[in-house]
Design goal:
The protein has 13 helices and 15 strands. It has 377 residues and is an alpha/beta fold. Helix 6 links the parallel strand 8 and strand 9. Helix 7 packs across helix 8. InterPro entries: Enolase-like_C_sf, Enolase-like_N, Enolase_C-like, Mandel_Rmase/mucon_lact_enz_CS, Mandelate_racemase_C, Mandelate_racemase_N_dom, RHMD-like.
């Protein structure tokens, strides 16, 4: 078997004027990503996603990878990420390069799964897993003036039993937002907060102390992702677990997070970290240091499918029969038709669970009409 065709397919969607949403750093109305479609000589098709804007990702895939990928045996997938660090030399650590690698890697795993009749999570070494617990990624900062409790109420009505909310504007408003979310979710729900790196260490400490009474499961990106010394400073000052990784890519950056337990939870994005091959390696490093893994997802439905398969493969180590912290999978509740319309059978979090596809590979079928609607090339 060999790959005979590589296509990069940029996608985009824009919110109406005045309806921007975001985090403590600012609002946005435009969303974009890039799919990769691989086809082999026997007609098998695999899909992956580069979590990067179309023009950059497409150019990178076409100029740096397409010639080498055509003719490649997809079963050689694990050589992709490793080769990217050395050829082209000096460029392998670039986020767009790693996003391109991620898309091709995931598409290869999709092909491998289809060729052997197994879902990707079983190929990655996981046991059979049929359901995961989704958490609503919600309560964004918005341009429009809306009651802060509205999105949390919507999430509860949809059946979510866990949520992650945006904070990070200032410690006082952080406490108010967390208090509101906790009251609506109830005492037993997992509640996570995301500061999106908007604080200096002393500000993050002040905010953490203001919200710790609300039983927060983790604080995500309390300081900027590049502020390694800031993370180390926070380790001895914050009692709430710290999570990071959505803005990191490749094994070497994650090794720095994992070594000496800089964070309690790493969050690789399957469209950026190097794909399923690197994610499996990252999960192995994390397990060695007893660090939890919870994938980040703000992608299209293809990136979500990869993350679901990856999450289903992750070991519960050190837990055995009793698992006090079950796997949580992020489910973005902002408007994103590239997630909600792109598949023949969309992921459905209703009732507080997400089904893990058991069909071969990623277990998804692309809706070709939706793909054409959101193409940006």
């Amino acid at each position: 078997m060999e790959i005979t065709d590589v296509q990069a397919i940029p996608l985009a969607h824009s919110l109406p004027d005045g309806e921007g949403l975001g985090d403590a750093r600012g609002f946005g109305t435009d969303r974009g990503t890039t799919l990769v479609r691989l086809e082999t000589d026997d007609g098998t098709v695999g899909w992956g996603e580069a979590f990067a804007p179309g023009p950059m990702a497409t150019a990178t895939i076409e100029t740096m990878f397409a010639d080498d990928v055509v003719g490649m045996d997809p079963f050689e997938v694990e050589s992709l990420a490793e080769n990217s660090y050395t050829d082209p030399y000096h460029f392998g650590g670039d986020v767009v390069v790693q996003s391109a690698v991620s898309a091709i890697d995931v598409a290869c795993w999709d092909i491998i799964g289809k060729s052997v009749g197994r879902p990707a999570h079983r190929l990655l070494g996981g046991t059979r897993c049929e359901k995961l617990t989704p958490y609503a990624s919600t309560m964004y900062f918005t341009e429009a003036d809306r009651p802060i409790e509205e999105p949390i109420r919507d999430a509860v009505e949809e059946g979510f039993t866990a949520a992650k909310i945006k904070i990070g504007a200032d410690p006082e408003s952080d406490a108010e937002r967390v208090r509101t979310a906790r009251e609506i979710l109830g005492d037993d729900a997992d509640l996570m907060v995301d500061m999106n790196g908007n604080y200096r260490p002393h500000q993050a400490v002040k905010s953490a102390r203001a919200i710790e009474e609300y039983d927060v499961t983790w604080i995500e990106e309390p300081v900027p992702p590049e502020n390694a010394s800031g993370y180390r400073e926070l380790r001895g000052k914050i009692d709430i677990p710290i999570a990071a990784g959505e803005a990191h890519y490749g094994r070497f950056e994650f090794k720095e997070l994992i070594d000496d337990r800089t964070v309690d939870i790493v969050q690789p994005n399957l469209g950026r970290c190097g794909g399923l091959s690197e994610a499996r390696l990252i999960a192995g490093m994390a397990s060695t240091e007893n660090v939890a893994v919870r994938p980040h997802i703000w992608n299209s439905a293809v990136g979500m499918a990869a993350a679901v398969q990856f999450a289903a493969s992750i070991s519960n180590y050190p837990h055995t029969r009793n698992v006090p912290e079950p796997m949580l999978i992020e489910f973005d509740r902002s408007e994103n038709p590239m997630r909600s319309e792109l598949l023949e059978t969309p992921f459905d979090p209703a009732g507080g669970t997400i089904d893990v596809p058991q069909e071969p590979g990623l277990g998804i079928e692309i809706d070709q009409d939706a793909l054409e609607r959101y193409r940006a090339d």
